[in-house]
Amino acid sequence: MRTHLDCLPCFLKMALAGIRETCPGQEDIHEKVVKHWAAGFASADLSESPPSLAGRLFREVAEYVGEIDIFKTQKEEANKRVLELLPEVKNKVQASDEPLLAAMGVSIIGNYMDCAVMGEYDWEAELENLEHGLDHAAFSKFIHEVREHKSLLVLGDNAGEIGLDTILTGLLRDEGIDVTYAVRGKNILNDATVVDAKVVGMTDLCEVVTSGVDTPGTVLNRCSPEFLARLDESPVVLSKGQGNFESLWGVRPDVYYAFKVKCPVVADVTGHPMKTSLFCQEK
């Protein structure tokens, strides 16, 4: 998916929020970062995917603040809150008529834990409707393929969200499915890394690997060769989150996508309104 003009002000919003959190009161640094990004837009190649372009610009922020995780606090808070709610949510999923479908619903709702839309959506309130709106036919096809191959590669997205993903991972593991969960290679936005996978217990449930990317999405030319080989060898791939969708839509038609539609651009691309819990495969 290419970058749209509407993506650019969204990038600035994320950059300013992150830099204000990391460097409170340092208006000179805030100004330098915003001006740097704005200047970068002038030469930006909009044929790049949004995660590819945003990843490059966020890497350049290090020139002003050093190699620090500017969304560290938000990630820790999201993981903590999910771990507090996890026992209750697990019970609700297990009591569902279709636990796997309910677990997928939970995973998608968790995609609201995104620094780009922090405070705009109430993910906890939406946990009352776990399977709401999901495409049952697409999900049935997905589960059939997972069971047939007994294998699944999950491309993770955000911190916090990864904790809710442990429910689906656990259910699949109980069926004898070999699940591998991929996280980002470096800190970027509030995306999950190996640190987050350990905090929420994902590393206790399945193999966790890094894609090697330093972008807020699985940008293939930023992935490690080892991960690309694993991706090519995986018979079933589940892409979590809008950033992974933006990176892979139009590139890998075999991938299943599970995410919340959180911006007008993606709503237009998918043909689904904002707030939709979307489970789909490119046609």
TrEMBL record:
Residue ranges of the Damage-control phosphatase ARMT1-like metal-binding domain?
A: 3-275
One of the Pfam families matching this protein, by short name? ARMT1-like_dom
State the superkingdom. Bacteria
InterPro entries reported in the protein's UniProt record:
ARMT-1-like_metal-bd_sf, ARMT1-like_metal-bd, PH1575-like
Q: What is this protein called?
A: Damage-control phosphatase ARMT1-like metal-binding domain-containing protein
